[in-house]
Amino acid sequence: MSINWNGVFPAISTQFNDDGTINYQSNARMLEQLISDGIDGIIALGTIGENLSLSPAEKREFIKHTVETVNGRIIVLSGCAENSADAAAQYAQDIQDTGVDGLMLLPAMVYRGCEQETLYHFQSVARATTLPIMVYNNPVTYGIDINLDMMAVLAKEENIVAIKESTTDTRRLTELQTRFGDRFTILCGVDDIALESILLGATGWISGLTNVFPQESVALMKLAQAGRIEEAREIYRWFMPLLRLDTIPKLVQAIKLAEQIVGRGSENVRAPRLILTGDDRAQVEDTMRDALANRLDLTKYNLA
Hints:
Elements: E1 7-10, H1 24-36, E2 41-44, H2 56-70, E3 75-80, H3 85-95, E4 102-105, H4 115-128, E5 133-137, H5 139-142, H6 148-154, E6 160-165, H7 171-180, E7 185-188, H8 194-199, E8 204-207, H9 214-225, H10 229-243, H11 251-261, H12 278-293
Parallel strand pairs: 1-8, 2-3, 3-4, 4-5, 5-6, 6-7, 7-8
Helix pairs in contact: 1-2, 3-4, 9-10, 10-12, 11-12
């Protein structure tokens, strides 16, 4: 199955009104801004999208609205995070005909399966849909490493075509390429090892902070892929304090606050998440203040 899931993919937030309902107009504005800024695709209903805080009906309506808003201009992938294999397979079937380009599939939530159970979960969803699937491997958060031997099993499923690699161990990128060649498209899923991952062969970057600074993200990717390493490092050094926000426990609240600061959205979240206060809020505000005060002039890189 052929795909072209390369480039910069913000994992978009789900925007909420003050009363907790989904703000579809705000999400549409955010999508238009991101597309204008040159991103290659988006992940809807991922971690930043607060997938598990939405009802089943809301998830299906949100992805339908997202696909309709994008209207084929960029790639749209949907997060698929459910508590059971049956529920995940049903979600995949329900959105299959919306025009979405594929799934980012997570292991079953709540119950931490063993290797055999995790493989069963991924196989069940893959066999229930014709949509291409990206495996989201994040053992730090979800407690199970979808290791090389497991990927060898999943390689037998034609529509499992990519992996979002979030082990934080950059050696895994080389191991995946050595064992599987170009069988899987590899995307970096950890913001603060993005440059390292691109240089080691990741052709995509799924990120939270690209929502806030998409132009810098696109520039970093293009420079790194062009071998203009010193210029890429200049952007990366400026970016690093911001990218660290993607690795903290309250990353969703931090990224949504950063979006609000630059006028790209609201910090509203759904409980049990609460908006940041105290030192947590000050950390994000201080980091953003420094970044905006020292923002680079991207025109000097002549990337147009």
